[in-house]
Amino acid sequence: MADSKQSIFSDSYSKYVGAKQKRKDARVKLDVPCTVELVKSRNTPVSGHLSDLGTGGLAFQTTAIFYEGDQVRVHFSLHQNPLEIIGTVHRTAGKTTSVIFQPLTASQHKIVQEFIHKHYFDPKLKK
Does domain 27-121 have CATH number 2.40.10.220? Predict the structure, then answer.
């Protein structure tokens, strides 16, 4: 009788369990107009579009150039709630800039979290 704890596969066999999610915050894809400006600059804000949003950060598309470590102020609206969020540029790739939020206020966090929740659970938005 075979040993029930012994595998029939060789020791070199490994099971792929998929890519592990590195983010701990839920995110949604979106296309929302925004303006972005450097926190310590008097330059005119540039326009762009949010492409990704979570409670820990966002990504936006623009032709303007931002660098890792830049402190930025991003203005946008979610369900007619205007937001101004400050964060740090984490990464840039082509026209996409990823930003990690500085700690959000309770009201900012609530607006973002409700937007994400509605995206995932609103039956009207289901495809």
Answer: yes
